[in-house]
Amino acid sequence: MTELMTQDPQRWLWAWGAMAFFVLTCLWSLWPRKKVVGSAEYLVLFASQTGQAEEIARHSYAQLEAGGRDAVVASLRDATADMLGAAKVILVVASTTGDGDAPDEGIGFERGLLRKTLDLANRRFAVLALGDRKYDRFCAFGHRVFAWLESNKAHPLMPCLEVDDLDAAALKQWDELLHSLGAGDAADEAVFAPWRLVSRERLNPEGDQPLYRLRLTADVLPDWQAGDLAEILTADGHRRDYSLASLPDEGHVELYVRTVEGGPGSMLLTQTLKVGDTVPLRVKAHRNFHAPDGDDPVLLIAAGSGLAGLRAHIRQATTPGWLVYGERHPVRDGALCAEAQSLPLKRLDLAFSQPDGGDGQYVQDVLAAHGAEVRAWLGGNGAVLVCGGLAMGQGVDAALRAILGEAWIEAAVAAGRYRKDLY
Ligand SMILES: Cc1cc2nc3c(=O)[nH]c(=O)nc-3n(C[C@H](O)[C@H](O)[C@H](O)COP(=O)(O)OP(=O)(O)OC[C@H]3O[C@@H](n4cnc5c(N)ncnc54)[C@H](O)[C@@H]3O)c2cc1C
Ligand SMILES: Cc1cc2nc3c(=O)[nH]c(=O)nc-3n(C[C@H](O)[C@H](O)[C@H](O)COP(=O)(O)O)c2cc1C
After folding, report:
1. Which atom of ligand 1 is nearest to the CA of 234?
2. Angle between helices 168-180 and 52-66 (to 10 degrees)
3. Closest residue to atom 11 of ligand 1, CA basis
4. CA distances (Å), origin 111, targets 105, 114, 138, 392, 393
5. Which protein residue has the closest C-alpha to ligand 2 atom 19?
6. Whose CA is nearest to atom 18 of ligand 2?
7. Helix (H) or strand (E) holding 71
8. For the stretch 288-299, what's the b/e string if a residue is b when 16 or more beta carbons lie within 10 angstroms of its beta carbon?
9. Residue 358's pLDDT is what?
10. Cα angle 260, 265, 266; round to 5
């Protein structure tokens, strides 16, 4: 037998070398390696302003888990190059806010990773872009994320999937994609209960744009905190958000709703629904508009129905804040000014844009006129809460940047000390 074996030392060297290589390779593959934090084969990322994208992303994750997939879900705020690199399939659910902008939790991603080049070859991806065709730059942020992933050589599972006003057909396509990836079924968390209209009062009988205070109640009152939303479901399936003006200790949900002619949500609440009727409603956490951490001074700014989102904050706060509130006319639209005056505040400034005799002022004009006091009030760590129409929010943002400087604003956004509830 031994005479059959080679005596050539060079051949023996090669054989031993090959054997050693094989053993080392086996050992290396068995060696426990450090897993990238938050990584999985299926990475579900979200960027959400009012919670819809987050809810869909979490549901998608639950479906993947139910199908036995190794999945993880995270905010784009926490996404890293390593997490993207470690995934085989990247699924992003991203809404667009402002004027084609990223939601607050996507801003850091857009300024950081999105400007870098990664090698994502061999990764597959899909983007569900939430938006609304009412806005000029439809689904703009979702498209930017899609273009970036594609430019980094990741392979799209489908073209960027646009969702207009939570369009059911587009959401069904997303669901089909998930099932093609092996997802199972998961319970839908968007459960609406019947809430009864207890009272409705027009706040501006002589004003141009009807504004109402509504009170609704349900058999079982859920818990919520300042900043949260009431979401209603209209007869034709539209979902609309309204800021909760009350806190649970008041025993009802209070809303301030302005009629938008032809709008399914506001027409249902302010016209169609009669006292005693019920509407499908759910109370929804809105973590981007929860109270900032700590006990530092708070500057609250709102106009019109935007007082809704701030009233609960003012009632919940332990230290009275400074409210700047705007309406059109002191008498014709003055009812919520009286409400503002009844709240526990350290300081209240009212702005009327259309008073008799001209010389109207918007809330941003009040801020600009009191710039030094705004700076002194907020100091380095104060917080700003803004609630109301998008145009008001943009005007206020420009005024605050001029008063406080870009660095203060950017630091406040990053630390959750500058929060907006705009619509
Ligand atoms: C976080 C959040 C909080 C909100 N809180 C409140 C609140 O406290 N009170 C409140 O009244 N609303 C609030 N809204 C707005 C509300 O959700 C609806 O968008 C609003 O009631 C209009 O819905 P709709 O179904 O009646 O009309 P839509 O179907 O949205 O609109 C119907 C038509 O009216 C136009 N339109 C829509 N809005 C306006 C407008 N403001 N002015 C003029 N034209 C318009 C649209 O372009 C469209 O053609 C909030 C929205 C968000 C996202
Ligand atoms: C203040 C505001 C600004 C918005 N701006 C845009 C926009 O520029 N483009 C767009 O397509 N949708 C826009 N939308 C619609 C949202 O993207 C859409 O309602 C989405 O479903 C919200 O998802 P989210 O709750 O995850 O943030 C805007 C919505 C709000 C309330």
Report:
1. 25
2. 30
3. 257
4. 11, 6, 20, 25, 22
5. 131
6. 131
7. strand 71-75
8. bbbbbeeeebbb
9. 84
10. 40
Do 65 and 71 form a contact (C-beta atoms < 8 A)?
yes
Q: Is the pLDDT of residue 175 over 50?
A: yes
Question: How distant is the alpha carbon of residue 195 from its chain centre?
Answer: 25
Please state, in angstroms and rounded to a whole number, the distance separating the CA atoms of residues 323 and 246: 17
- Ligand 1 pocket (Cβ < 6 Å) reads 50, 134, 229, 238, 240-243, 256-258, 260, 262-267, 305, 308, 421, 423
d(CA 38, CA 306): 38
Q: 25-39, 136-150, 168-182, 396-410: which range is least confident on average?
A: 25-39
Tens-digit pLDDT profile for residues 344-386: 999 999 999 999 988 899 999 999 999 999 999 999 999 999 9
What residues line ligand 2, using a CB cutoff of 6 Å? 48-53, 95-100, 103, 130-132, 135, 137-140, 166, 390, 422-423
Give the pair of three-digit tokens for residue 302.
């709102």
Find the 36 Cα to ligand 2 centroid distance in Å: 32
- Cα of 369 from ligand 2 centre, angstroms: 31
Chain mean pLDDT for the chain = 93
Distance 132 CA to ligand 2 centre (A): 6
What would the pLDDT profile of 402-416 be if each residue is shown by its tens digit? 999 999 999 999 899
Q: What are the structural domains, with CATH classification, of the chain? A: 42-180 (3.40.50.360), 193-287 (2.40.30.10), 289-422 (3.40.50.80)
Mean predicted confidence (pLDDT) in 35-52:
88
Give the ligand whose atoms come closest to the C-alpha of residue 391: 2
From the CA of 244, how far away is ligand 1's center (Å)?
A: 15
pLDDT beyond 70 at 34: no
C-alpha neighbours within 13 Å on the C-beta side of residue 293: 5
Q: What angle do CA 298, 304, 309 make, to 5 degrees?
A: 45
